[in-house]
């Protein structure tokens, strides 16, 4: 009789295990969007801080929205929100070689002259917040932008209260 009960228990356990393996419980995670921006839903919650999603690193603010076009903790997030490898030049400019964009400044000079070319790549834009005080501890007083630059991102010089002179060439259209 005990052998029969043990057989029923084992058979029941095998049925339960088979059902669970055939119907795995999946995590419900997906990208979502509204007028305030993108966020990554994880079940009943959302991502905050740094998260690796599909092999790329993203940063989400305390409200869960994805950050983009800015530097956080020393890492540049491009327009898609993904962390992007950037090079730092001798002039302490952080440069995204794939887009020709100055994305940050880590120097302490009061005068900044942006070159028209870095490592053989034309400097074509200054990214959003690149010289904002959030991204630099410098007390920049003047900046010269080369003719190769055609666009300057939103808030590129935000909160730079020491900035007294900026040379913007006619090549800048945006």
UniProtKB/TrEMBL annotation:
Record InterPro entries: Cell_wall/Cho-bd_repeat, LRR_5, LRR_dom_sf
Protein keywords: Repeat, Signal
Keyword Signal appears in the UniProt entry: yes
Cell wall-binding repeats: 47-66
UniProt signal peptide: 1-29
UniProt keyword annotation of rRNA-binding present: no
Lineage top rank: taxon: Bacteria
The name this protein goes by in its record: Cell wall-binding protein
Species in which this protein is naturally found: Clostridium beijerinckii (Clostridium MP)
């Amino acid at each position: 009789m005990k052998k029969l009960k043990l057989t029923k228990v084992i058979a029941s356990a095998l049925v339960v295990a088979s059902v669970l393996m055939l119907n795995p419980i999946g995590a419900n995670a997906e990208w979502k969007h509204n007028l305030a921006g993108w966020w990554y839903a994880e079940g009943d919650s959302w991502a905050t801080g740094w998260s690796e999603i599909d092999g790329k690193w993203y940063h989400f603010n305390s409200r869960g929205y994805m950050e983009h076009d800015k530097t956080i903790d020393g890492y540049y997030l491009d327009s898609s929100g993904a962390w992007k490898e950037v090079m730092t030049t001798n002039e302490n400019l952080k440069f995204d070689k794939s887009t020709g964009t100055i994305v940050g400044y880590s120097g302490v000079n009061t005068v900044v002259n942006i070159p028209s070319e870095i490592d053989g790549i034309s400097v074509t834009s200054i990214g959003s917040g690149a010289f904002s005080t959030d991204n630099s501890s410098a007390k920049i007083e003047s900046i010269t932008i080369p003719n190769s630059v055609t666009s300057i991102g939103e808030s590129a010089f935000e909160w730079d209260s020491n900035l007294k002179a900026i040379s913007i060439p006619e090549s800048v259209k945006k």
